[in-house]
């Protein structure tokens, strides 16, 4: 036991060391003239605690998604679609998430296991798949993407599926340990059961099988494979974009599976996986609905609001890998006010497709994720939905906890539970039913 703990500790130390090396290397490539500013602490009792008081939120000005780079106001769907949308997408790629490499290898999806099972009385056929990424250009790195797909057994028509960025017990065996009860709503059945009761299916995509979740791993995974084991240049993609690419690749698979209706695929995730779900929605318009759980900074919450997690935290060595290297500039010689985009820009790219912003109770989840910042990003993305003749968020007034704002294509609900989408599933499904008849 002692030896194992010691080995784990050593492995962690070496990951941290490799992460630091990569981080320092990126700072050098950027030639930053100023030191990195440290982010505030997530511990409310720390002397440098992040702001969690509404009264202390500063004034800030957001870039207007409907003003083009030449200063002209975007007044038509066509100008949005042909000009402004790609300007925003470029800014998000160049400054935050990185662009997809040009020659991405192909993925060969194979079913490795199939079984009939039962979840809460609903018979379901589960398939376990591996998406094997062609590594002939760099055989030193293997990328085997793990995907579980469950559809109601015997369904006649192709079914809608919600795919979660999540975890799996691999391969099939005893079911994964139930997560800590803190993550489970005592008030709602689990998500798979709820989806099956609608006649819908579920899928779980494993992010770590696409790209490791640390700076030390940037020379492996799909990022390392596409880069032939070299460290990244400042504009190259970060982990969130890589996970989103994995989701797009799973979408390619869905398009080939007759049991699944590829026109009705939703993407869901919580926390860093909620950020990945939003990036997926923003950059791949084949996804029909989004369920963005507590995605916080780097996801749906406005970065310019000094509340909860800040750009300086995201650009630190423990989170910078989620982004492209250029993003580091905004915690050094530049500031968040220099960013040409913010969270509402990312939501605007999802328009006109419906997205649901989900968050937990401040008393249980805490306020690091900045619920109001996510709500306001929805408010400020809404004019783009309006231009596309959709409703966006139905109000600009922050709702009380539990109230579902599901009247428009940008939905919002703060549930009474913790850091999880759990207590919002039934609300999400009721909302999604409008679109997936
Ligand atoms: C940290 C991080 C968040 C992130 C979260 C998670 O709290 O600061 O941005 O969402 O981890 O993914 O668990």
From TrEMBL:
<dbReference type="InterPro" id="IPR054579">
    <property type="entry name" value="GCE-like_dom"/>
</dbReference>
<feature type="domain" description="4-O-methyl-glucuronoyl methylesterase-like">
    <location>
        <begin position="236"/>
        <end position="381"/>
    </location>
</feature>
<keyword id="KW-0378">Hydrolase</keyword>
<keyword id="KW-0732">Signal</keyword>
<protein>
    <recommendedName>
        <fullName>4-O-methyl-glucuronoyl methylesterase-like domain-containing protein</fullName>
    </recommendedName>
</protein>
<keyword id="KW-0719">Serine esterase</keyword>
<dbReference type="InterPro" id="IPR029058">
    <property type="entry name" value="AB_hydrolase_fold"/>
</dbReference>
<dbReference type="Pfam" id="PF22244">
    <property type="entry name" value="GCE_fung"/>
</dbReference>
């Amino acid at each position: 036991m002692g030896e194992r703990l010691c080995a784990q500790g050593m492995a962690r130390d070496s990951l941290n060391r490799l992460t630091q090396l990569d981080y320092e290397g990126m700072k050098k490539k950027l030639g930053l003239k100023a030191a990195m500013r440290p982010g505030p602490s997530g511990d409310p009792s720390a002397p440098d605690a992040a702001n969690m008081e509404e009264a202390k939120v500063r004034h800030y000005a957001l870039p207007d998604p409907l003003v083009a780079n030449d200063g002209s106001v975007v007044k038509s769907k066509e100008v949005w679609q042909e000009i402004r949308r790609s300007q925003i997408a470029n800014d998000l790629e160049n400054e935050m998430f990185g662009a997809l490499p040009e020659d991405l290898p192909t993925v060969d999806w194979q079913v490795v296991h199939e079984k009939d099972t039962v979840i809460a009385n609903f018979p379901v056929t589960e398939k376990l798949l591996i998406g094997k990424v062609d590594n002939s250009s760099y055989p030193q790195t293997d990328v085997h993407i793990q995907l579980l797909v469950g559809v109601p057994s015997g369904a006649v028509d192709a079914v809608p599926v919600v795919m979660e960025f999540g975890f799996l017990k691999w391969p099939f065996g005893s079911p994964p340990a139930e997560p800590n009860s803190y993550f489970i709503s005592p008030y709602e059945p689990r998500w798979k059961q709820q989806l099956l009761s609608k006649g819908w299916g579920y899928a779980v995509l494993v992010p770590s099988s696409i790209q490791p979740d640390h700076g030390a791993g940037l020379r492996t995974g799909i990022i390392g494979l596409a880069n032939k084991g070299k460290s990244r240049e400042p504009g190259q993609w970060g982990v969130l974009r890589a996970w989103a690419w994995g989701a797009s690749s799973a979408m390619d698979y869905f398009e080939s599976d007759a049991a699944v209706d590829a026109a009705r695929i939703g993407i869901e995730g919580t926390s860093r996986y909620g950020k990945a779900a939003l990036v997926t929605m923003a950059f791949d318009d084949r996804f029909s609905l989004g369920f963005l759980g507590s995605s916080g900074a780097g996801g749906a919450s406005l970065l310019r609001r000094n509340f909860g997690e800040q750009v300086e935290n995201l650009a630190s060595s423990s989170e910078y890998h989620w982004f492209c290297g250029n993003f580091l500039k905004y915690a050094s010689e530049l500031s968040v006010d220099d960013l040409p985009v913010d969270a509402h820009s990312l939501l605007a790219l999802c328009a006109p497709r419906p997205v649901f912003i989900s968050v937990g109770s401040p008393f249980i989840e805490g306020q690091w994720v900045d619920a109001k910042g996510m709500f306001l990003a929805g408010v400020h993305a809404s004019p783009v939905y309006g231009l596309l003749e959709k409703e966006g968020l139905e109000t600009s007034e922050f709702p009380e906890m539990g109230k579902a704002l599901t009247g428009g294509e940008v939905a919002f609900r703060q549930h009474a539970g913790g850091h999880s989408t759990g207590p919002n599933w039934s609300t999400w499904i009721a909302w999604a039913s409008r679109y997936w008849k």
